[in-house]
C-alpha cells in the first residue's frame, strides 16, 4: 500500500543547525533582526551578524543538552535499530544505495517514546513493528506535528499505532535502485523502509541522502557537459563551412539544460510557508503548518524573517523536552535569524547549500531582502531529479548524438 502522496513530505529540520560553518556559499545571506529595540531593524554589520550567530549557537547548545539527557536515559533501554548486513550489495540495487540504520518501536509504544528516541538519535523517522517483528507503519516528525500536536492529542497516552502511517510502501535490498527512486518521486515521500528477503526490516532509505552522495557526480556531469558544449561550438566555428543544424541544435539544447533552474521555479503562489508571530503558540503554529502543507513556519517581524520553526523543532524542543504546546510560544523554541538565499540561486546550488550546512529548509528572499518563500529539501531534491529526467528525455530526441534510453539518474545509481 502506498503512503498518501504529498509533495511536501519532508521531515523538517532547523535551519542553521551547524551555525558557524566556514563553507557557506557567498549567496547565502544572514537575515539579521536587531533585538535592541522594540521595532527590529535589519542590520548587516559584523556586530549584528555575531549576535545572530550567538543566538543560534545558544539554541544548538540547548538542543544538544536535550539530546544528551535523552540519550543517557534511553541508553538503559537500548532502542532497537535494524541495519543492512550485506557485505557486497549488487550494483544498481537499493542495497548499493546504503540504506541507513532504521530505528524501530513496537506498536504498543506511546507517542512520547517516538519523540524521545527520534530526538536522541537525530532521526527523522521511526519504523513501527508488531509482536511478530513485522513492519506495520512509519512515524515521522511531520506525523507527530500534524497528527498529534496540531490535533491536540496527549503524547503520553496516545499510541503510535493510532497516528502512524500504516502499511508504508517498502522495497527489498535487491530492488532496482531507479525503481525505488521513481516510487519515491511519484509518491511524493522521502523515506522508504528496506526489507530483506524474509520481510525483516534492515534499513531506511532517504532520497535526500542518495542525492547528497551523488552531488559530486552531478557537479562533474555539469562541468563535463559545459566542456563538451564549448568544444562542439569551438569546432563548429573553426569549420569554414555552413553550420551543421543538428549539431547546432544539440549544442543549444545542452546549454539550455546545463543552466540549472533557479529557486523561483519551485516557489508556489503561497510562498510555501506558514507565517506566524513571535507570541504564536506551538499548537497554533503546528496547525498553521498543517493547513499550509509545509513542515516549517517563518516568524515574521515588520516584514522581515526573525526566525524559523519546524516540525523537527516540535519533536526535539517541545515534545521531547516536555514543554506544553499550548503555553509555549514559538519565540522560545524557534531558530533565530536563519540564513536566507536569493530566488536566483540554482537548484543545484541550493542542494549543495543544504548538504554543506545540514539544512532541511531554506528561506528565500527577493532582491530587496523581503520574504519570497520557503523551500524544503524534498522539493529541491525532486526538482533536481526532475531536471535530470528532463535532460534525458530531451536528449533522446537527439539520439544521433549519443543519447540513451531511461532516466538519466541511472548513471548515478548503477555505475
What topology emerges from the helices and strands here?
Elements: E1 29-30, H1 46-75, E2 80-82, E3 102-106, H2 111-120, E4 125-129, E5 135-140, H3 141-149, H4 160-163, E6 165-166, E7 171-172, H5 177-187, E8 191-195, E9 201-206, H6 207-213, H7 215-238, H8 245-258, E10 274-276, H9 282-291, E11 296-301, E12 304-310, H10 311-319, H11 330-333, E13 335-336, E14 339-342, H12 347-357, E15 361-365, E16 371-376, H13 377-395, H14 410-413
Low-confidence stretches: 1-24, 31-45, 393-408
- Please tally the helical runs, counting DSSP H or I stretches of 4 or more residues: 14
- Give the beta-strand count: 16
Helix content: 40-55%
Distance between the termini: 30 Å
Mean pLDDT metric: 77
Provide the spatial order of strands within the biggest beta sheet: 2-3-4-5-6
How would you sum up the major sheet?
5 strands, mixed
Nearest-angstrom radius of gyration?
A: 23 Å
Return the structural class. alpha/beta
In what range is the share of β-strand residues? 15-25%
Question: What would the keywords be for this entry?
Answer:
14 helices; single chain; disordered N terminus; 4-stranded mixed sheet; 415 residues; alpha/beta
Amino acid at each position: 500500500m502506498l503512503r498518501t502522496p504529498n509533495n511536501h513530505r519532508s521531515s523538517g529540520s532547523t535551519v542553521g543547525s551547524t551555525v558557524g560553518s566556514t563553507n557557506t556559499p557567498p549567496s547565502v545571506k544572514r537575515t539579521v533582526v536587531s533585538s535592541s529595540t522594540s521595532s527590529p531593524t535589519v542590520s548587516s554589520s559584523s556586530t549584528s551578524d555575531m549576535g545572530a550567530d550567538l543566538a543560534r549557537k545558544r539554541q544548538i547548545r540547548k538542543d544538544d543538552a536535550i539530546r544528551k539527557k535523552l540519550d543517557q536515559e534511553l541508553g538503559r533501554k537500548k532502542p532497537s535499530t535494524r541495519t543492512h548486513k550485506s557485505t557486497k550489495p549488487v550494483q544498481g540495487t537499493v542495497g548499493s544505495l546504503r540504506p541507513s540504520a532504521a530505528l524501530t518501536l513496537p506498536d504498543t509504544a506511546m507517542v512520547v517514546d517516538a519523540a524521545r528516541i527520534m530526538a536522541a538519535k537525530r532521526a527523522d523517522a521511526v519504523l513501527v513493528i508488531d509482536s511478530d517483528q513485522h513492519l506495520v507503519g512509519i512515524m515521522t516528525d511531520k506525523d507527530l506535528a500534524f497528527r498529534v500536536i496540531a490535533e491536540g492529542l496527549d503524547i503520553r497516552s496516545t499510541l503510535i499505532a493510532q497516528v502512524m502511517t500504516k502499511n508504508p510502501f517498502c522495497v527489498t535490498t535487491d530492488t532496482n535502485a531507479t525503481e525505488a527512486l521513481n516510487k519515491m518521486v511519484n509518491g511524493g515521500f522521502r523515506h522508504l523502509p528496506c526489507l530483506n528477503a524474509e520481510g525483516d526490516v534492515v534499513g531506511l532509505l532517504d532520497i535526500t541522502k542518495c542525492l547528497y552522495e551523488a552531488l559530486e557526480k552531478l557537479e562533474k556531469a555539469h562541468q563535463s557537459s559545459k566542456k563538451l558544449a564549448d568544444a562542439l561550438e569551438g569546432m563548429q566555428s573553426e569549420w569554414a563551412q555552413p553550420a551543421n543544424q543538428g549539431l547546432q541544435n544539440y549544442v543549444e539544447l545542452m546549454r539550455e539544460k546545463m543552466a540549472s533552474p533557479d529557486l523561483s521555479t519551485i516557489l508556489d503562489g503561497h510562498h510555501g510557508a506558514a507565517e506566524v508571530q513571535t507570541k504564536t503558540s506551538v499548537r497554533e503554529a503546528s496547525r498553521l503548518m498543517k493547513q499550509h502543507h509545509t513542515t516549517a513556519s517563518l516568524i515574521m517581524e515588520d516584514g522581515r524573517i526573525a526566525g524559523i520553526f519546524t516540525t523537527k523543532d516540535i519533536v526535539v524542543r517541545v515534545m521531547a523536552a516536555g514543554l506544553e504546546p499550548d503555553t509555549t510560544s514559538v519565540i522560545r523554541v524557534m531558530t533565530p535569524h536563519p540564513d536566507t538565499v536569493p530566488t536566483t540561486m540554482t537548484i543545484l546550488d541550493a542542494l549543495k547549500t543544504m548538504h554543506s550546512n545540514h539544512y532541511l529548509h531554506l528561506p528565500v528572499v527577493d532582491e530587496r531582502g523581503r520574504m519570497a518563500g520557503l523551500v524544503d529539501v524534498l522539493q529541491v531534491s525532486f526538482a533536481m531529479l526532475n531536471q535530470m529526467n528532463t535532460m534525458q528525455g530531451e536528449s533522446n530526441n537527439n539520439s544521433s548524438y549519443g543519447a540513451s534510453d531511461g532516466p538519466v539518474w541511472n548513471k548515478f545509481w548503477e555505475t
